[in-house]
Design goal:
about 270 residues; Rossmann fold; about 45% helix; about 15% strand; globular
């Protein structure tokens, strides 16, 4: 007689699915129409967040929002110009109007200026990269802190910096300078708002397969080859790989991490 126990899978309840990394959270994402921001929107929604996508281009935002919804996520979008204070505040307010709260924010939006030595940077380009890449995150953080404070109470913010901010950047001096300043704002905000339970961190991506890198390659042929040669992993990051780092920093699993600038660069700055 065979007394080997058997399991009747037809009556065994299935194990509950693990909760998503951002389950139950409302997330606001700038620069969400393409690249890392769009990848973050898809990922955050898959991880259980309700997401509000913000960027300047309506058509791109609509396409990503529809993609998120088609995959079963909850998403909406708002047109936002990071260089305009009223536009930034209105975009953050839209998140609380739609979802009743704000828990986390990923300040990813940025602009690009033509590469070249510092003395060849046009004043108009310098002013533009300042307005979008530095003033924009400052405006966003101020609005996001206020929204988190008055709704969720506690939360987290991640700013998208760059490994180009971590040392001299002769090819993109203005871009690197603004991103280094974002690192400083991140650290200052972490100290200021930590006592309230609001964490603030940054990520510093390395070579990532985005439109910005393709534009830079067109201006500086051979750039992609040089970047790969400097990266121990020997390849560009997929935008979702960068978004994964942001998602972790925004999640409760990084609850004791604040004020850090996390390199996500395939070892390029090791």
């Amino acid at each position: 007689m065979d007394n080997t126990p058997t399991t009747d899978t037809s009556t065994t309840p299935a194990a509950p699915a693990a909760p998503g990394l951002l389950a139950g959270k409302v997330a606001f994402i700038t620069g969400a129409g393409r690249g890392i921001g769009a990848a973050a929107a898809r990922l955050f929604a898959r991880e259980g967040a309700r997401v509000l996508l913000a960027a300047r281009t309506q058509a791109q935002l609509k396409a990503v929002t529809q993609e998120v919804r088609a995959a079963g996520g909850i998403a909406d979008h708002v047109v936002c110009d990071l260089a305009d204070a009223a536009s930034v505040r209105a975009a953050v307010d839209r998140a609380t109007d739609l979802y009743g709260r704000l828990d986390v924010a990923f300040n990813n939006g940025a602009t690009f200026v033509p590469p070249g030595p510092m003395d060849q940077v046009r004043e108009a380009d310098f002013d533009h990269v300042y307005a979008v890449n530095l003033k924009g995150p400052w405006l966003a953080m101020a609005a996001e802190v206020a929204a988190i404070r008055t709704t969720a109470g506690t939360g987290a913010i991640v700013n998208n910096s760059s490994v180009g901010s971590l040392r001299g950047n002769p090819e993109l001096p203005a871009y690197g300078a603004m991103k280094r300043a974002v690192n400083s704002l991140t650290e200052s905000a972490a100290i200021t708002y930590g006592p309230e339970g609001i964490r603030v961190n940054a990520i510093a991506p390395g070579h990532t397969a985005t439109e910005m890198i393709r534009t830079w390659e067109a201006e500086s042929p051979g750039l992609v080859k040089r970047l790969k040669a400097r990266t121990p992993l020997g390849r560009a990051a997929d935008p979702e790989e960068i978004a994964q780092a942001a998602a972790w920093l925004l999640s409760d699993r990084s609850s004791y991490v604040t004020g850090t600038v996390l390199r996500v660069d395939g070892g390029a700055r090791a």
